[in-house]
Every structure is written in C-alpha cells, then in structure tokens.
Write a structure and sequence with these properties.
Helix content is about 15%, strand content about 35%. It is mainly β and about 230 residues long. A 6-stranded antiparallel β-sheet has the order 10-11-12-9-14-13, with no helix packed on it. Strand 10 and strand 11 form a beta hairpin. The longest helix has 19 residues. The chain starts with a helix and ends in a 17-residue tail after the last strand.
Amino acid sequence: MKRHVQTIALALLWPATLLAQSEWSWQNPLPQGYTLYDLHIFDANTVLVVGEAATAIKTMDGGASWSLQHNLGGEGITVELESVSFVDANTGFAVGPGDRIFKTTDGGATWSVQSAGVFSTLHGVDFDKGCYVGQELTARMKHRGKVRKRLLPVRVAGELPPSGAPITEGGKEIGEMRGGLGARAIAYLRLDDLEVGKSYRCGAAQVTPERPAWLPDAALRPGKED
C-alpha cells in the first residue's frame, strides 16, 4: 500500500516538475552559443558582434553585459552574418551568404533586410573602402555574363616595363603591366582582344601572353564557350 501511495505522489508531482522546467535560460558559453564572425568597435565600451543564425550581440559597458538578438530582420532568417560595418553610431550594415543586406538605423536595436540586387554572395562590407569584397568581379560575371579581363603570365622580350605600363596593339590599349622579374611578368589583359602566343607592345619591350596549364582554354574566350 505504501508503494502505491508513493507512485501516486510521484505521478502528481511529475507535471509540476515539467511545468517548473518549461522555461530555460542559456548557461554556457555566455552570452550565447552561436559562432561569431565579425565585430564593429564604436569606442572603448561599445562593440557590436554578428554571427550565425542572423545573430547580433552588443555591449555598451566594455563587455560586462550584452544585449542579444537572433534572426535579425524576422523569424526564419538564419543566415550567417559574416561582416558588419557602421557609417556612424546609428547606421550600419551586415552581410553574409546570399545577396541580403541587413541595415540598422538605431545602432543595432532593430534591423531591416533588403536585397543587393546582384544575385551574388556577399561576404564582406567595409565603409572605409565603400563596397563589399569581390564587388567588381562578381557584378561583371553576373550581369555581363563573362569575365572580360584577367591576370595572365607574360614573357618579356627587352627591358622589363614598369608596373602600369600600357600594353597595346596597333595603338589600341588592351591591358597593362602589373609587375615581374627578368623575362617573366604578370599583366592584366582584355580577353576580347587577346591572342595567346602573340606578341604585343609594352613600352620598348614585347610581351607575349601565356595560358597557365591549370586554366581552361575556354576561360580565355569570353562568350565563346562550347
């Protein structure tokens, strides 16, 4: 009989125990457990950090306490925010995989989401530079269809031209020298006008572009791939 009474008592207490544990708080690591990728330092006390699950955490007391947000821009948004940069104390932007840009105008208290409109993966933003990493190449590839210029090795006949010297054919500029040593150099060349193995004028020298073994021939023929 005593055993039955104990069993009934446990059965009555079990729902109460579950109810008491229905609210959980994060214990370790603090202040949260998602991987963090980038931060913006406002001053000695104020820092905002971004990371997985569209997470942003901010301290205004040198790290003694943190405010925490997940799913910036709305429920269901769980992208990894890989970079964050602020124009001033209130206006900032964060980016990650995909073309979404997260924007705040109140120092990170609230965020809105917009599309970059370039169908590109954004991995960085920095207002010291003023654009995102890979912007020029990504935009050209996605919107113009092909890469039109490329760095290529060249053989140099004559004195090595200085960096920035134009490479021409019949008076038309098709690229420029970027640097080299002796008879070997790197040039930035327009692919539409390029013929590998042909010599071009660069100052008093002649330069002959070469295709590296690892580079497919089709990569040098924009718009003409099989």
